[in-house]
Specification:
146 residues; mainly alpha; elongated; binds heme C
């Protein structure tokens, strides 16, 4: 009897631990995305004031965060308050490429900001936004799964 309860308790504990981890993964990647959103807004503001140093720094942040995207979506992390769609795991190569696209676009923006090339910066900002939007369109649901 005691043993049975103990096993039952352990099973409940394991499930709780597992869900806590999955939810933490969802929170972490959503925080990563919020950080990207803040960086993208800072870039747009800096474009207005021709603050190339900030554009460069924030675009570098995006280069770094783009490399963390795929790791933020481990298999099975499709539960809870998430807009992640099954396509992320069904078409994981495409998802990886969409993350790389952001890295490439951010790298181009860094170069444009370094060169203080306004036309290239404008194109670079669009490239970054397109990379965000492209991935969201293909892999993010309109509504939370819950
Ligand atoms: C490779 C795919 C991909 C790229 C590139 C990408 N995102 Fe996301 N983003 C997602 C997915 C998938 C979600 C949904 C995550 C979830 O709800 O678990 C998301 C969610 C978000 C959210 C909502 C976070 C929250 O609190 O729920 C914001 C804001 C966001 N992204 C901004 C950006 C910005 C800005 C960029 C570009 C600089 C970007 N994303 C690039 C896939 C991507």
């Amino acid at each position: 009897m005691f043993q049975k309860n103990l096993l039952g308790g352990l099973a409940v504990f394991a499930v709780l631990l597992f869900s806590t981890q999955v939810f933490a993964q969802v929170d972490q990647r959503q925080d990563l995305m919020k950080g990207q959103s803040a960086a993208n807004k800072a870039i747009k503001g800096a474009v207005e004031t021709k603050d190339f140093a900030t554009i460069e720094a924030k675009a570098k942040d995006l280069m770094g965060s783009s490399e963390k995207i795929v790791g933020g979506f481990p298999k099975g992390s499709d539960k809870g308050k998430t807009k992640a769609t099954a396509a992320i795991w069904d078409k994981s190569d495409d998802f990886g490429n969409a993350a790389k696209k952001l890295g490439t676009a951010a790298t181009a923006l860094v170069s444009a900001a370094k060169a203080k090339d306004e036309a290239a910066v404008t194109a670079g900002v669009k490239g970054v936004s397109d990379a965000c939007g492209g991935c969201h369109k293909a892999f993010r649901a309109e509504k939370y799964a819950e």
